[in-house]
Design brief:
The complex is a heterodimer of chains A (193) and B (174). Chain A is α+β, with helices and mostly antiparallel strands. Chain A has helices at residues 2-30, 54-64, 128-131; strands at residues 35-38, 41-44, 73-78, 87-88, 91-97, 102-110, 125-127, 137-142, 151-153, 159-170, 183-189. In chain A, strands 1, 2, 3, 4, 6, 7 and 10 form a 7-stranded antiparallel beta sheet that branches. A 4-stranded mixed beta sheet of chain A has the order 9-8-5-11, with no helix packed on it. In chain A, a hairpin with a 2-residue loop joins strand 1 (35-38) and strand 2. Chain A is elongated. Helix content of chain B is 29%, strand content 30%. Chain B is built from 3 helices and 9 strands, in the order H-E-E-E-E-E-E-E-E-H-E-H. In chain B, a hairpin with a 4-residue loop joins strand 4 and strand 5 (101-106). Chain B has one domain (46-173): Immunoglobulin-like, CATH 2.60.40.1610. Chain B is an alpha+beta fold. Classes of the chains: A alpha+beta (193), B alpha+beta (174). At the A-B interface, helix 1, helix 2, strand 6 and strand 10 of A face helix 1, strand 4, strand 5 and strand 8 of B.
Chain lengths: 193, 174
């Protein structure tokens, strides 16, 4: 009798563990199906999109709870430089690009923990209202500003920080591609010859 | 020994648990958000402090916006929601308890601000309400985003936000 009870308890435990594990794995690996890449930029179609079913809804909630719909805003994130290396505070980068076919845009630098970097430079985000919407633009991403007209501070960001581009009210002719999105170039890294 | 029934039982429990987790995940996440926004007072706007490196409640916050959120509760009847106009981009979004963004309006469509009466789906429509939106759930979140990249613009947005309304019609009538 005891043996049967123990066997059922073990079966229940294994069942719950399998169920939770497979649900987690579905959300974790299912995300990949929503990620599109444009050059080094990653774009999740899940953020702000309409749910088509329980799986889609769970992935959307995990990736973009309370996000705006794609009609309102598109989100692109950069985790690596042009050589595929993690973004690093010890490097100086140039982020530049053509005008974006949108009403407004911004680029924000996030720490590896997905929050704004803990520094007091007040240079964690740059947007079209300061740069302009109609011409080629360029932003320095570095721990110190130097002589850069536009600057995103990576001071205290360490390694594995990221950049998120938000494109608001994209025009009908906006097409995301490696050519239309800004390009990141590594200018130098500390310790390099 | 007949292990088949235990294996079958474990697989059945795994399938039920899997479906329950997938179904519950967005609702749990939204419930946490609703509780955080609502706190002690539902059906009222709360303006979030300007986003800074100290902001640690929601991941990847945008420092360019002034956010106002209202956790609504339709258990006592319809709720009236309005958003005062803003000089730059703004939008009003409604999210159901299962996380669906079921309504959004921005300044291109509502240059002079937005006003609506929120009712539970299928509930009786209040007389005289011009714009009625049906919520799929009894509780949810209304969110206003106002573009305000600078401290001065945030202060101006905060002033504008004082004119927003999120209130139960029953409380207004009382």
């Amino acid at each position: 009798m005891l043996r049967r009870v123990l066997a059922w308890a073990a079966a229940a435990l294994i069942g719950v563990a399998l169920g939770v594990g497979s649900a987690w794995a579905t959300l974790e690996f299912g995300r990949a199906g929503f990620i599109e890449h444009y050059g080094s930029w990653a774009h999740s179609r899940a953020a702000g999109s309409q749910a088509a079913g329980p799986y889609t809804r769970a992935i959307i909630a995990r990736d973009g709870l309370l996000a705006l719909s794609a009609r309102e805003a598109l989100y692109f994130t950069l985790y690596e430089d042009e050589e595929g290396r993690p973004l690093d505070e010890s490097c100086v980068y140039d982020l530049s690009g053509p005008p974006l076919a949108a009403r407004w845009w911004s680029v924000t630098l996030y720490d590896a923990d997905n929050y704004l970097v803990r520094n007091n430079d007040h240079a964690g985000s740059i947007d079209a209202s300061r740069i302009g919407l109609d011409s080629m633009w360029s932003v320095r991403v570095s721990p110190v500003r130097g002589n850069a007209p536009h600057w995103l501070s990576s001071r205290a960001a360490g390694r594995d920080f990221s950049l998120t581009l938000r494109v608001y009210n994209p025009h009908r002719d906006f097409r995301a591609s490696a050519e239309t999105l800004p390009r990141l170039t590594t200018l130098s890294c500390a310790g390099e010859a | 020994m007949g292990w088949d029934k235990y294996v079958f039982g474990a697989l059945l429990i795994a399938a039920v648990t899997h479906i329950a987790c997938i179904y519950a995940a967005p609702r749990l996440m939204m419930n946490v958000a609703i509780e955080r926004v609502g706190g002690e007072s539902y059906n009222s706007w709360r303006l979030a402090e300007r986003v800074s490196p100290a902001s640690r409640q929601i991941v990847r916050p945008s420092p360019d916006f002034a956010y106002s959120a209202c956790a609504y509760d339709l258990s006592a009847g319809p709720v009236t929601i309005s958003a005062a106009p803003w000089s730059s981009y703004w939008s009003l979004s409604l999210y159901a308890a299962n996380s669906d963004n079921y309504y959004v309006i921005d300044d291109r469509e509502a240059e002079y601000g937005a006003g609506l009466t929120l009712i539970r789906r299928g509930a009786r429509r209040p007389d005289g309400a011009a714009m009625i939106v049906e919520s799929p759930s009894e509780r949810g979140i209304a969110l206003i985003r106002r573009l305000a990249p600078s401290p001065a613009e945030y202060r101006a947005a905060a002033e504008t936000a004082r004119r927003d309304v999120c209130a139960s019609l029953a409380s207004l009538a009382g």
